[in-house]
Amino acid sequence: MLNIENFLQKISEKIAQFRITLTREVAKFSKTREISTPQSDEISREVMRSKSLSPDPSLCPYCNSKEFVKRGLRKKKLETVQLYLCGACKRTFTSQFIKGRHFPMNLVIEGLNYYNLGFGLEETCNLLNQKFGVRPEASTLSNWTSQYSELCRYSRLRPFAVKMFKPEDTVETTSMAHRQIYRFRYHRAKMKILLEDYKHRNFGPLKEYLEAVSSETPHQYFQDGLRISEIKTKFDKAQMIIRSKTNYANALAKFVLQSVKENKFRHEALQRFFIANDSVTVASEVPVYIKKEDIEHMENTLGFKILDEEIRVKGQKENGEKGRVPKATSNSALDGLPRLLTGHIDLVQVRNGMIHILDYKPNAAKEKPIEQLTWYALALSRLTGLRLYEFKCGWFDDKDYFEFYPLHVVYKMKDRKKKKVRFKSGDSVEIPENNEIKVV
Known about the structure:
By secondary structure, the protein is α+β, with helices and mostly antiparallel strands. The chain has 16 helices and 15 strands. Among the domains are: 1-31; 217-410, no CATH class. The chain has helices at residues 2-30, 38-49, 105-116, 121-132, 138-147, 158-161, 167-170, 188-197, 204-216, 221-224, 248-257, 266-277, 292-300, 309-321, 370-384, 406-410, and strands at 68-75, 80-86, 92-93, 171-178, 180-187, 226-227, 243-245, 281-291, 340-351, 354-360, 391-396, 401-404, 419-422, 428-431, 438-439.
């Protein structure tokens, strides 16, 4: 009897010692920038507690019907999944398009995030155990990285990145209280590789700006200035072209969003996955601002047409009623603009010799954030000193992707003089503005 009591006492001591060790390890990892942020932990706990791991589907995956209802729950070992019954084809389905998973999809995604930040297989499995209370085998994690290698294109750059930075230093994360909490992320290794090895060296000013965000951002601007998404002014979009296509971002969004239940967690989950696994996304929630005098410089010096004609005429009338006589070079319509405009860019990418400014918009096909994205491009161009023709803007969801050139929005081609070309035969060809050749 005495031996049993001693045995139980020793077990209790071992358990207590293990708990102390585990607490120290959690504290160790919580000091890093990207490993355990409060928001990401909140997402994980909320998803693990929820009965349905993803939002309601929009269509039946078998017949694309919208006529379906909830049909109970499927209890699995580590999660509970919502089932749906289609009224058209009478088939049962879930909102997760990846089937046969023993582990929840949010745990799989988190494992991919940690591994591509530079952690080894065993280290990543230990981190998942600390965060979810479930530890997959290293071989299982290796299978995930192989299975989703087409989605996680950063895996090609990972061997070079781990030689540059430690995993906890690869991504710089800064929380900014700008009326609400924004979590800025900057991938140091990815930016360095893109600039040095992929011939984007002219984007050095972008790298300098992103590296200075944490220490030099004027946070008071974001308390006083008007948010870009709230401004009512409109651009003259007569000469712009919006292209609709299927982009790699759609596949990434579809993969990530199946594991997120509430809309308020979508941006955070997408940004973390893009930063860790996409090969061209270098930063997220990038703070930008533009002053009124910057806009005046763009209109007067660069020849940009920031405001459309209706707003311009309205501003001139208001100035006339107040007895002002604006100068010929003055843009009186700018008098109605606020002193400062601020905003946060969802995702910044460097690819194909251009800087891409992306914004995630649920139901992207019904959205047209052209003004918002153009202001972002103008602000980032002004802050970095890069030319506006080096920027491209786009918005997307898991189905659609739309893009345009912000330069086409603000720069209007001037009328060209008619050219006349003479041939040896004596005939002449007149090339008018519409490029239709007319023989005279």
